[in-house]
Amino acid sequence: MTRGIITIVWGDKGKLPLDRLLRSTARHHPELSHRIIEIDGAAPGPHALLEKARMFDRSPFEETLYLDADTVVLGRLDFGFEKAARYGVALSICENPWARRYHKIFRGDEIEYNTGVIFFTRAAEPLFDAWKDGAQSLDASILYTQGGEVKIMPANDQGSFAAALERTGVNPFVLPCNWNFRPQWQKSFFGPLKIWHHYADPPAYIEAVTEFYAQPNHVVQYHDATAHLADLPPPPR
Known about the structure:
It contains six helices and twelve strands.
């Protein structure tokens, strides 16, 4: 029980690609237990995301990888666990790095991290305690534009997570985007991808790149996947 993976789900779980995720973790980490934690009574929507702030309390492991339900593991993840063991937490910067989009919390250059892939250990408890507190007390609404119109998202878990990092002074180990690849916004990359983060399946191009880097004596190179990622479907509602 020292190392394992958890995923928190709520709402209509039939719409979630959980079987895909479980197959991918079993393929690359057959030695690890993967727990699916179901939250009863949490309606889908932004406020349900706040349940993620309790992931530390819900993990039975000493060393944990949290994965969103719409992720796919594409390779071994030992490096992420090793860095979390050294620093307490390892994660990637959000595709939108500006935490000031949470206009009720930030005004400066604070960083937003993506909470869909988080490696952590029990040493990170103060950070997660601060996240739980902030998830309940902070106004983590977001202003955004759609079709030229300014709209508001009433809540998001990543604002309170960024605030918890600022409050506690925890310095996470920062993994590159390859460890939390968001193809809706990220269209190119260097080297192999470790975790695909989207409801759509990785296209054949991504599978071919993954197979290429599984070969010995490969050369790390740049990959422009724009044409292959142009028509990703939106997430289910």
